[in-house]
Amino acid sequence: MQHPLIQHLLDRLLAGGNLTEDEGRALAALGPGQTTALLFAAHAVMKHRGRTPFTCSITNAKSGTCSQDCAFCAQSGHYATGSPTHPLLPLEELVARGLAMHAAGARCYSLVTSGLRLSDDETDRVCACVRELRTRTDLCLSASLGLLSPEHARRLAEAGLTRYHHNLETARSHFPAICTTHEYDQDIETILLAKEHGLQVCSGGILGLGESWEQRIELAATLRELGVDTVPLNFLNPIPGTPLGDMELLTPHDALKSVALFRLMLPGADITVAGGREKVLGDYQSWLPLAGANGMMIGNYLTTMGRDLAADLRMLEQGAWI
Ligand code: SF4
Description:
The protein is α/β, with parallel strands linked by helices. It is built from eleven helices and nine strands. It has helices at about 5-15, 20-30, 35-50, 90-105, 120-135, 150-160, 185-195, 215-225, 250-265, 275-280, 310-315; strands at about 55-60, 110-115, 140-145, 165, 200, 205, 230-235, 270-275, 295. The longest helix has 17 residues, at about 120-135. It is globular, with a radius of gyration of 19 Å. The two termini are about 25 Å apart.
């Protein structure tokens, strides 16, 4: 028999309602015996709200030597991780990578740069890439360039950018344990600026940074309040040399339960699973749609390799999106 709390809240979500933060916390507190029911509820909500499968891809357009001290990040200049460093790639290379991902089946292509923010000149080069890909493909074009200024947001929107990616990374209450070099409110401000300029917003975080279940719900509630369109969920893949290099991996159970909770808290958003899924979920990756995720990042991540592209596309084709 369905757990009465799950059934009650599922009925409300299927009727178009939302959960409160307290209700999200109550679901998170249910024991492992209820996890399968939570996954089924999340799946039902995903289908009911018409969230269709999509794929996105990223390219590491500028890598390493970042001034920020995010405790999980291979690209922070504060830690010796041996991660590759390079300035912003030439325009032709950025365009060629976009065309290749388009040909491989990605619906969305995102240019990702390290650092707190881009210079004017770098922003203009990203805009040139966006213009070129906009005329040559029907890709959803995204960029993740750190903090935005109003002027940079305007230029990117005018160039034809579809969406801006800026992760909050974790809950506000956990952020000081993860990053001390900028404020959570600066990240929120960037999301609001992107929205003001008509860009869709892709914003999520990394799970497994030592946050509690309550803090996962807190992050989900903040993202819902901000009205983000897409929520990328990463699982920490600990990088030697960073402060979180020895952190234990999430278990597949906790990872899938977390995805389900984000779906239930954000019923109308696209939920994409990105970095760390191979390492944390292994053979359980095909359970992601069951947990309510409707998007998947394909290809490689910023500093770690993704699963074989053909295997991911085969998984999509073979009806993982039941
Ligand atoms: S997550 Fe972004 S801002 Fe933080 S250290 Fe890495 S590249 Fe810099």
